[in-house]
């Protein structure tokens, strides 16, 4: 029994060391200034959204993961299960926003080119029809959430979906995220008040289609 207890203690110590050495999640830097997306998204919104809201998801994710590793080391399944909602919410918030910032560019807007445009025409009929459908789905999100253009690896086709709160697209639907539109109020309320359709219409003017195209290429591999 003594040797079993020593082995268990050793295993717990090893797991704790691995958890401690695990690199923490960090807030990604933006490749553009907070005011670079004006007049479509104000500098004040970008500053608060990135440095406050996204940073909070990152910090809470790190704290939750530490608690989860401790519960794992102790074999505390009850705590592991209890932490799942926080992992999903804060992990999803970090994943979603990390994609979102790269989906935007001060040199964005217009229409995509190449394979992405071909896929859009094939799956939606035209670029305009895709924009209209994604805009409608995104505006219709009840409460807080995201509208997404995703890639269905099984069918090889593009799909439009909406996710509630910070639910990550791939983790909840299996679709690989290509383009996301954040419709939490903190993403637009200071500038657009409660007129979500105006915000969604404006965001198309700063979509980074090069980034979306790169994501499609990676998803197809």
From TrEMBL:
Co-factor requirement: Mn(2+)
Domain Manganese/iron superoxide dismutase N-terminal, chain residue ranges per copy: 24-105
Record-level Gene Ontology MF annotations: manganese ion binding; superoxide dismutase activity
Localisation: Mitochondrion matrix
Keywords: Manganese, Metal-binding, Mitochondrion, Nitration, Oxidoreductase
GO cellular component terms listed in the entry, alphabetical order: mitochondrial matrix
Reactions the enzyme catalyzes: 2 superoxide + 2 H(+) = H2O2 + O2
EC number of this enzyme: 1.15.1.1
UniProt superkingdom: Eukaryota
A matching Pfam family: Sod_Fe_C
Coiled-coil region list: none
Gene3D superfamilies associated with the record: Fe,Mn superoxide dismutase (SOD) domain, Iron/manganese superoxide dismutase, C-terminal domain
Domain Manganese/iron superoxide dismutase C-terminal: 112-215
Binding-site residues, Mn(2+): 49, 97, 182, 186
SUPFAM superfamilies: Fe,Mn superoxide dismutase (SOD), C-terminal domain (SSF54719), Fe,Mn superoxide dismutase (SOD), N-terminal domain (SSF46609)
Task performed by this protein: Destroys superoxide anion radicals which are normally produced within the cells and which are toxic to biological systems.
Quaternary state and interactors: Homotetramer.
Sequence similarity: Belongs to the iron/manganese superoxide dismutase family.
Name of the protein this chain belongs to: Superoxide dismutase
């Amino acid at each position: 029994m003594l040797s079993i207890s020593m082995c268990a203690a050793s295993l717990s110590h090893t797991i704790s060391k691995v958890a401690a050495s695990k690199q923490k999640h960090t807030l990604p830097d933006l490749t553009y200034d907070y005011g670079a997306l004006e007049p479509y998204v104000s500098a004040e919104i970008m500053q608060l959204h990135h440095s406050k809201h996204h940073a909070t998801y990152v910090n809470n994710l790190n704290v939750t993961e530490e608690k989860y590793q401790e519960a794992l080391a102790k074999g505390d399944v009850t705590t592991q299960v209890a932490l799942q909602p926080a992992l999903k919410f804060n992990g999803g918030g970090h994943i979603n926003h990390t994609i979102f910032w790269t989906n935007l560019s001060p040199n964005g807007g217009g229409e995509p080119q190449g394979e992405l445009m071909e896929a859009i025409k094939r799956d939606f009929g035209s670029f305009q029809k895709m924009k209209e459908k994604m805009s409608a789905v995104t505006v219709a999100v009840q409460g807080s959430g995201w509208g997404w253009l995703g890639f269905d690896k099984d069918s090889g086709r593009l799909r439009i979906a909406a996710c509630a709160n910070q639910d990550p697209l791939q983790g909840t639907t299996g679709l690989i995220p290509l383009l996301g539109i954040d419709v939490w109020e903190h993403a637009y309320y200071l500038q657009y008040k409660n007129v979500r359709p105006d915000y969604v219409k404006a965001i198309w003017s700063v979509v980074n289609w090069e980034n979306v195209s790169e994501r499609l290429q990676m998803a197809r591999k």
